[in-house]
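chain below, 169 aa
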Amino acid sequence: MKKLVIIAFAIVLSSCNQTKIGYIDVEDLMKDYEATKVLEESLKAKQEIMAKELDSLGAPFQQKVQEYYQNAERMSASKRAKTEQALQQEQQILQAKQQGAAQSLQKENQEQSEIITKKVDSFVADYAKLNGYKLIMGTTGQGTVMYGDDALNVTQDLLDILNEEFSKE
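prediction:
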């Protein structure tokens, strides 16, 4: 129902000769926007650093586990139980650190993506006002714009300007 209202609204607006309408392929815009690429590279680098740190913590733990299995048969029942409990606690600590690292990266990704999205939204509004657009719609391939004449697609114009501004930052 919502799509029909949007389409009907677009048709009514497009029938007016003085109404300037455009659309943006949001997926292409975000994929090719340099700020998004820099964010992805930054997060990937941080993920690799965190993975190395976690691996450096995990290697000694794995060594302890191997030693336990090698010596378990020679241990008393109480010593085996204490060692198993200590290993389980250490494993839980490692898992908590892994979850913390993943959550930290996810939170940073979400926060930085929101900043980029807000910047793009603000830029689109300014671009529309400056260029006399009454309506600029966004599409993501399966979204609200089922068809749009290529002449109405302002994605590349916006992308060029956004990337130029980002390169100055």
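The chain has one domain: 2-168. The longest strand covers residues 21-25.
thats it, cya
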